[in-house]
């Protein structure tokens, strides 16, 4: 079973598991894209509230493993995680794989949620694996705003020398598929997953400029602008208030600290070097009709 079936990870993981011959039960919180999820390769699509332990238990019944992804920015992420653990206990699920975050001990809202879920998972007695990726390479975060504005807009304080690690979600879901399929080889392991790049905002902008063949400057932005880009308005609504709190927390921490990891574990899983940010842009931009140099 794979949760957050419309999200960045699931849209890449479900086809990989299906192509390997596995039946995938996908779970979404809304039912407007069920056909799209089936087209990805899901054999079943369930719609429901993952904070409801009884629903989660019904969804998980009969599955050999669960890949639990907390939907980004949902203020109920902690409840969903606790619900997952209780459902897995009831179902005696053979393998629980939890998508957490790199350095879950740091003081960022979503990190605190995931850290607390990890703690309960470790205490549960369930066979588990925890994946701990760094920041994702995804269009909405990196090149969406660049294509819209011609600028790399950063919603935390732009500070000279401040670096961040990035991971290609294709690489991450290759790891997730391997862990789910190989099962017991990965029981009771926590894997920190980072790409090789450790980039400042200005280094990212230089890569954009080189790939796109035009100057892309770094511009100081803020959380409200980031929200407006993604939702069309900076107005706080019930739909975006969770992500607003998460982004505000990220901005506060990232303004003062680097967020970097080591690529050794990811390289070990992949058997190759991870995709770099420049390789990612050269792969993804042409898919949007954007020429690269």
Characteristic key phrases:
293 residues, alpha/beta, Rossmann fold, four-stranded parallel beta sheet, three-stranded mixed beta sheet, globular
3D structure, described in words:
- With 293 residues, the protein is an alpha/beta fold.
- It has a domain at 10-134 and 167-195 and 260-274: Rossmann fold (3-Layer(aba) Sandwich), CATH 3.40.50.
- The chain is 43% helix and 15% strand.
- It is built from 12 helices and 11 strands.
- It has a 4-stranded parallel sheet, sandwiched between helices.
- Helix 5 (109-124) links the parallel strand 4 and strand 5.
- The longest helix has 16 residues, at 109-124.
- It is globular.
- The termini are far apart.
Order of helices and strands: HEHEHEHEHEEHEEHEEHEHHHH
Q: How much of the polypeptide forms β-strand, as a percent range?
A: 5-15%
CATH topology of the domain at 10-134 and 167-195 and 260-274: Rossmann fold
Could you give the distance between the termini? 41 Å
User: How big is the Rg?
Assistant: 19 Å
Please report the number of helical segments.
Answer: 12
User: What general outline do the C-alpha atoms trace?
Assistant: globular
Strand count: 11
Mind telling me the CATH superfamily name of the domain at 10-134 and 167-195 and 260-274?
NAD(P)-binding Rossmann-like Domain
Fraction of residues in H or I helices: 40-55%
Protein name: NmrA-like domain-containing protein
InterPro entries: Ergot_Alk_Oxidoreductase, NAD(P)-bd_dom_sf, NmrA-like
Organism: Sphingobium ummariense RL-3
Pfam family, one: NmrA
